[in-house]
Design brief:
about 300 residues, Nucleotidyltransferase, domain 5, alpha/beta, five-stranded mixed β-sheet
């Protein structure tokens, strides 16, 4: 076996059926034994007739390891969920619902719903970034020149009609990114203050929305992209821009189109792969991080399409 990865064949050998997957999920989510998702009791838990079903005699709740997670009420067996998670954390640019449907033998609609539930789990809360932090924004959407005439906004080029995403990357650490409504100073600086610890050194380009970040809260250094300068001593945004390169290649090459409504989940998916799902970690460690994130992240189909 490779030092940090396992192959698809090895994964199938380890988890060939729903029962082996269930045992794996329970060992990860319940290391001390079954725990009631309603009252959190670990005692007075009895097993039901079917394997994997439990009853809490304290609050009289019947439950499984799926209760209170993204898997709740799903008819897809757990070993197919596990394989979908494996594909999500190992595919650098993501996997389409059509490809996933063929890989695990479900409909494209089911695969689309599964992927969105997994992306919902990817949106785990991270501690504030600190130290040296790069900040930049990007724009997601089709170019005006490539649109059909009836879809053109006729408002110029550049960011017209595109969705805004701001990102912050801690050098040697985590990445946080999220959609924004505008690139105004109020929006950009609110995102920075919410996600970067006071006293950090932040690097950005010379966009006017970042003016005023330095002084009392941060050591703010800029690199003048307008003058064609992309590194000035320590100041550079090359790290966060590499995140945008992967994000855009994934969206354009794998998903082709992402609506503003669901953009946050796609951004969460890509940042998860850079954080807990980064390739330097063993595949099983990445899967464990994904399993840890599924608790309390329920997403119904009605909520998804509302």
């Amino acid at each position: 076996m490779d030092k940090i990865t396992i192959s698809t064949f090895q994964l199938f050998q380890m988890f060939p059926d729903r029962e082996s997957a269930r045992v794996y999920f329970e060992s990860r989510l319940w290391p001390q034994g079954a725990r009631c998702p309603v009252c959190a009791a670990t005692e007075n838990i009895t097993t039901r007739k079917r394997a994997g079903f439990y009853r809490c005699n304290q609050c009289h709740e019947d439950f499984t390891v799926c209760t209170g997670t993204i898997f709740e009420r799903s008819h897809v067996p757990l070993h197919k969920w596990l394989y979908a998670m494996y594909l999500l954390v190992t595919a650098r640019k993501g996997i389409s619902s059509l490809q996933l449907s063929k890989q695990i033998g479900v409909t494209q609609k089911t695969a689309w719903f599964m992927l969105h539930r997994l992306r919902e789990a990817c949106g785990s809360h991270l501690d504030k970034l600190r130290g040296l932090v790069e900040i930049d924004e990007t724009f997601i959407g089709g170019k005006e020149i490539n649109k059909h005439a009836h879809k053109k906004l006729n408002m110029g080029r550049g960011a017209v009609g595109k969705a805004i995403v701001v990102g912050m990357r801690e050098r040697g650490g985590n990445t946080i990114a999220m959609p924004l409504e505008s690139t105004s100073a109020a929006s950009l600086q609110a995102a920075v203050h919410s996600n970067v610890a006071v006293g950090s050194t932040i690097f950005s380009d010379d966009a006017p929305g970042y003016v005023g970040l330095g002084g009392l809260f941060f050591n703010h250094q800029t690199v003048n992209h307008t003058a064609g300068i992309y590194r000035d001593g320590q100041a550079s945004t090359n790290g966060i821009e590499s995140v945008w390169a992967v994000l855009k290649r994934g969206i354009y090459g794998v998903y082709h189109k992402v609506s503003k409504k669901h953009l946050r989940r796609y951004v969460d998916e890509f940042t998860f792969r850079l954080n807990a799902g980064k390739v330097q970690r063993h595949t099983l460690d990445r899967l464990d991080s994904m399993i840890d994130a599924v608790v309390g992240k329920r997403l119904t189909f009605a909520e998804l399409i509302a």
